[in-house]
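Input sequence (437 aa), recorded before submission:
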Amino acid sequence: MEQNISIEKPKGKLGVLMPGLGAVATTFIAGVSAIKKGFSKPIGSLTQMGTIRLGKRADKRVPKIKDFIELAKLDDLVFGGWDIFSDNVYEAALNAGVLNKDLLDSVREEIEEIKPMKAVFDKNYVKKLDGDHVKKADTKYDYAQMLIEDIHNFKADNNLDRLVMVWCASTEVFITTDPVHDTVESLEKAMKENHPAIAPSMIYAYASIMAGVPFANGAPNLTVDIPAISELAGKKGIPIAGKDFKTGQTLIKTILAPGFKARLLGLNGWFSTNILGNRDGEVLDDPDAFKTKEESKLSVLEHILQPEIYPDLYEKFYHKVRINYYPPRRDNKEGWDNIDIFGWLGYPMQIKVDFLCRDSILAAPLVLDLAIFMDLAQRSNMKGIQEWLSFYFKSPMCAPELYPEHDLFIQLMKLKNTLRNLKGEDLITHLGLEYYD
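Predicted structure, token format:
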């Protein structure tokens, strides 16, 4: 296959900006620092540990992804962000309680130098949190201009060549699309009028794109999933992706559900409950914020199982999701699933899953991969929605005329085939014929 895509070399430093320097972001930053010092390995990161098969199986060409395509290196990453609390990354990481103090002390010198910029925050959208490290302005449009100035200053102050932004802040209250989201003009007008349909995350996304910075949304907020932002990203030639990091319980669903469908096993019901004690759990204790997360979680099974195509197996399955705030668990979330399936002749069976996971430990490598892959997309002139990065999200973005792909294994195939295509390699189709395989 001929390569028709030009990939700009990743020269210089790459800035990774994160709204929200809480548990996820600090675990990511401290983790990268520890990995660079050789204290640990980047477990869970496709860009650092993943491989990619090239050509036929008999060719035995299976390089690491980072050796196959031009990616930014860990040594070239520079971190920054915004938060409603003024704690530096070391202090915030201690407070989050995800990583042990010995590990944090081993990288203390470099991470305590990273201090958050004042955040754009509105308690109406995150009711359970309150902080005083926030910006003050008359309009939401003014806030956007302040963020754009922050981005430009961060780039200049750190002598950066490129930037990406990954939303790591809290889940906002549930918002539906509004006519003000339809065009860039209506969005900007609404920002100047402080319209309630413009949430803080949208202000960050708008500022990021206007500053020429790719934006990935790690929360279930509407944020970039509106026509105006897609239009703006297309006009500016900026990659966008989202939404909601695929970590604990939903990760398990996107592994198990494709298996049920592949074996044509039916589903009567799937009940999921979570207990979580970190800041995310506290935020989701608000019903309006939980509604945002619930919408993200519930969509997964419908799209994977396709009940309209397999009515005998999935037409009437019952799906319920619960999240309960339980402070003693801190970041160590427990996701419990009861799955009622049926097989040959309709005979019922059950599966129980109890996933005692660490939410930020699962999310941190996703932040790393998204930062590096979004930078690759920018250097490859891949503007707008990056559907090939669906692998990382609970509610993947896609073109309006399409439905999102939730099957983890199809998502991984799409991601790796995109990388093959960028480098002019044959796509892997797994036809299974000796002369094609």
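Checked by second reader. The mean pLDDT is 93.
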